[in-house]
Amino acid sequence: STQQIDSGTGNPNFTKNLIFAAKFANDAAPGHYTADVTLSLVAKPKILTTYTISYDANGGSGAPTAESVETADSATTFTVSSTKPTLSGRTFLGWATTDNAYYPEIAYDSGKNVTLTAANPNLTLYAVWDGTSTSFSTSSMQAMTPAICAAVKVGTSHSMTDSRGSTSYTVARLSDGRCWMTQNLRIINRTITSTDSDVSTSFTIPASALWTDELDMPHAYYNNNTTYGAYYNWYTATAGTGTQNLADSDATSSICPKGWRLPTGGGSGEFQALYNRGKSGWILNNGVIGLNGYWLGGTSSTTPGAAFFPAAGVVNSLNSTLVGDSNHGDYWSRTAYGTSYVYRLYFDGNNDGNIDPASASYYKYDGYSVRCIAR
């Protein structure tokens, strides 16, 4: 018979106890028997792969030390280092897989697990730094580009005009490295096109009106509160691409201005990434009586790169009312979860200030707030 004995990887000298047994017929005569046993050893070498994760400070200094593992395994997992490089006058934003990235990649945040395979055993991560300018080079939201965002320092804010009605919004580069609107969207009663909006085909945002439970129909409500902004069901927030049947993927359009879009959702989404950079506790009366909510991207207004998200409430389509303003916040992402849910930023001041940047909502037909993020 043939038996396979595994010495283990990288172990040329090993000991193995072998036991041999002989089988005799029931009527065999008593006596001493001898037999020759042939033992053949066949070397079957395993291929070793060296996996390496390296860090490049990309103009800075103090990059983490590279890590390497040699193994016969088909994959190896590393944890992204918590060591931060430095560059005079610049803020380290995170890591990316190219040396000219505008934004850090969420998948390579400090503490994330990264799995390398034998097909691609080497990974180099490059530091991403904020810019040096303290002002945006445009005042038009529709003119925003990744290069314009990347040129400014974290914490830089500016008033920009949305050409769709000449509405002004404050925007800022936040601590996650992205440029966000720091006010809630409030566009209603307008047909938007690919020349001014994040759409490929024209879409009509309806006039303000409360609504009852309905899917795949446009609905919006605005009660002229510029701080809280307008409320949209998910179908409207995604400019008709967030249908009832969209599952486990991102809606392809939104009612954000051209050059902007809805944030991604879930545990690896952009709400989560901003939350990971810091948050405040539940804030009461943020400069205005009844203006409650959270700072994200930092712990307060004095933290560079933090933005305030007010508890604007939600349009409850089951009974066609605005509820929860001043104690409840819901902000749409672009990411569907399963066939029935959508990820959102959620918080509730009535529940000890509970906040979840990757909450999944069943209520696609309710009206939530919209914060746009620059592409």
Calculate the terminal CA-CA distance, rounded to whole Å.
Answer: 66 Å
Query: How large is the radius of gyration?
Result: 29 Å
| Helix proportion range | under 10%
Low-confidence spans: pLDDT under 50, at least 5 residues?
none
Descriptive account of the structure:
There is one protein chain. The protein has helices spanning 146-150, 234-237, 270-276, and strands at 49-56, 67-71, 75-79, 92-96, 113-117, 122-129, 157-162, 167-173, 179-181, 190-192, 203-205, 220-221, 231-232, 260-261, 293-296, 307-310, 314-316, 321-323, 328-337, 341-348, 354-361, 373-374. By secondary structure, the protein is mainly β. A hairpin with a 4-residue loop joins β17 (314-316) and β18 (321-323). The longest helix has 7 residues, at 270-276. The mean pLDDT is 92.
Labels describing this entry:
three-stranded antiparallel beta sheet; mainly beta; four-stranded mixed beta sheet; 28% strand; 22 strands
The gist of it:
With 375 residues, the protein is mainly beta. Helices cover 4% and strands 28% of the residues. The protein contains three helices and 22 strands.
Architecture blueprint of SSEs:
Blueprint: E1 49-56, E2 67-71, E3 75-79, E4 92-96, E5 113-117, E6 122-129, H1 146-150, E7 157-162, E8 167-173, E9 179-181, E10 190-192, E11 203-205, E12 220-221, E13 231-232, H2 234-237, E14 260-261, H3 270-276, E15 293-296, E16 307-310, E17 314-316, E18 321-323, E19 328-337, E20 341-348, E21 354-361, E22 373-374
Parallel strand pairs: 1-6
Antiparallel strand pairs: 1-2, 3-5, 4-6, 7-8, 8-9, 10-11, 12-13, 14-22, 15-16, 17-18, 19-20, 20-21
